[in-house]
Amino acid sequence: MRLVKIGVASVNATIGAVRSNVDRCIRLATAMAEDDVTLAVFPEQVVGGYAAEDLVQWQAFVESQRRELERFAVETARLRTVFVLGLTVGVDGDLFNVGALVHGGKIRAFVPKEKLPTYNVFYEARVFSRGVPGLDLDARGVFCGDRIFQFDFGLLAIEVCEDIWSPDGPMRRRCYSGAEIVCNLSASPFRAGVVGTRREMIATRAADNQCTIAYANLVGANDGLVFDGGGFVNQNGRPMLEATRFREGYAATVVDLDRTIRSRREASTWRSDLEAFRREQTPVPVTALHEKTADRSKLRYPAPPPGTSFFLPSANLPVKTPREELLDDFYDALALGVADYYRKIGAFRRIGLALSGGRDSLLTLLVAHRAAELLHPDLEGAALREAAGSMISAFYMPSRYSSDATQNAAARICADLSVSFMIVPIEDAFVRELDATRTLLGPGGPEPTELTKQNVQARIRGQRMWNWSNTSGALFLQTGNMSEKALGYTTVGGDLEGAFSVIANLPKTVVIALLERLEKRFGYPGIRATLDTTAGPELAANQSGEAELMPFEVLDACLYLYGAEKLAPNEVALALTSVFPDRDPAQLALWAEKFARLFTQSIFKWVQSPLAIHLGSLDLDRERALQLPVVQRTEWKGG
C-alpha cells in the first residue's frame, strides 16, 4: 500500500484582501498539517479573490499576491504537508491564473491555467494568458509552466478550474506522463444543478485518466457571484470524499495510490491510448522534489463508510428529494450572497426592505434573516433568531389599494422572525405627487394615466427606502423576481430600486416553490398568510399579476424557451403546446408573442437594476450572463 491523505479546503476569500485571505489559508494549512494531511489543495485565486476582473491590471495588486504567497511559504515552512494554492502571477507581458506549489518554506512552481472561459459569468481571456503544452518560463526564480512533480509519495499534477471541464485538457497528457494525483483548484460559482454536474464530471475525468482527482472549490460571495465551496476526491472513478458545501473549512480522506497503478495496469484501453500518446507526443517533464513530506506511518487504509461495505452502498435512502435539495441550495446561496455582500463591503449597519405582504418581499425577508444569522456564527437557537431579527427593518407602506390581508401577512412574518415592522402610509404623498404631475402636464393637459398612477406609488416607496437607508447606513434590498423583471412588470425609480437584488434571478414559480419549502421547514404562520393572498402589486384595485401578464407557469416556460433555448416566438408557441397540452394553442401563441414583445421592450429597464445574485445560466444581468443590446428591433423574429 502507498497511503496518502488528501485534504481539500474551501476558503471564503474576499477580492483584494490578500493578507486576510492568506491568513485564512495559513489557519487551514496548520489544521490540515496537524491532521496528518499529506497534500492540501486550496481554491483557485484564493490569494487575491475571484473574480478580480480588471483589477489584475494593477501591477501592485498582482505583486501583493506574490508577497503574500511568499509569506504563506515562510509561515508554513515547519509543516511537511505539500500545499497547492491559486493566485495571479505576472511574467513579463503575461498574466497567468496559476496553481502554486509550496513545500518546505519555498514556492516550488507555478502551473498556469490553459482553458480560459469566456462565457456566462467568465471573462478570463480578457485579462489572462493561456498556459500551453511545454511552457517553460521563469517567474523571478520560480518555474512557471507545464510540469508534473515527483514527491516521496508519488507523482503530482496541478491544474486550474476550467482545465478539468474539457476532456482534452492538460490532465490527459500529464496522466499519460505519469501523474497519479491531479489537483484541481477551482472557483466554480453556484448555479442550479451544478453539484451533480461537478460530481459526475469529476468521476468521468478520474476514470478516463485513471488518476486520483483532488478538487477544491472557493466558498463565499463576491459581488453577485456565490461560490458554494465543497470539494471532491475521486480515485479512478470511485468517489472517496465529498466535502460539505456553503461553509469554510476542509475535509480529508486517505487513498491508496497503489490502487491507481493497479487500475492502470488492468485498463487495456487506457494503456492503448498511452501507447499512442508516447508515439505521437512528448511527455510532460517531471521535476523531482526530494524534501520529505508529512509522515504517513499513522494513516489507515480507507474503509467503507459506516453502514456500507466494499460491495454495497448504504441502505439509508436520501432524506430529501432532488427538488427539496435544489430549493435548499437556492436558500443557502441567496443567504450567503446577502451575508457576504453586507460583511465584505463593510459599509452597512443594518438591513432593510419594503415589505408588501406579497411573495417576493416575503422571500427576500426570509433570506435576509438567514443572512443575518450567518453574521452571528457564535449564537444559536432563540438568541440567534433575536440577534438576526434585530438587524432588520421592514416597512409596510400602504396606499388606498393595499389590503388588510397583505398588511396582516407582513405583520405576522415580522413577528415570527422578531423583525422590526413599521407601517408608514403613502396615501397623502400619493395625492400630492398626482397633483404635482398634473401641474407638470400644464393647464388642459392630459390626466395622468392609470399606469402613471401605479408607478407614482412605487416611486414614493423607493424614494422613502433610499432616504431611510442613507440616514441609517442600511443595506436596502431590492425584492423583485426574475419573471416580472423580464417583462418590465416593475417600476424604474420604484420597486426596481435597491442596493442589492436578492431574488432577481429567481423565476416566480421558483419563488413560490421555495416559500412552500421554507414553510415546511420552519412552519412560520406568516408564510402561509402570504401564500393565501392574491399575487399582485396592489397598485390598482383588485390587481392580479397573472391576469395582467399570463399564468406564472406559462410565463416562466416562455422565459426558459426564449431566453435559455433561444427559440423564436413562433417556436416558443409550438413548444408550449407540448408543455401545456390542456391549454388552448391559440392562447399560448398569443402569450408567446406577448412575452417576446415585452421582453425586448423591457431590456432598457433591467439593465438599470441593482447588482443581483447569480443563480443560473440565464441571469438577466448584462455584465454576467445574458448580454443583449438595449436598442434593438425584432424584425428577425419572423412569423
TrEMBL record:
Cite the EC number. 6.3.5.1
Query: Pfam family of this protein, just one?
Result: CN_hydrolase
The UniProt entry's GO CC annotations, sorted and at most eight, read:
cytoplasm
Q: Does the keyword Membrane apply?
A: no
**Source lineage:** Bacteria, Pseudomonadati, Myxococcota, Polyangia, Polyangiales
Q: Where does deamido-NAD(+) bind?
A: N455, E484, K605
Output this protein's name.
Glutamine-dependent NAD(+) synthetase
**Record GO biological process:** NAD+ biosynthetic process
Domain CN hydrolase stretches: 4-259
Q: Where is the active site?
A: E44, K113, C161
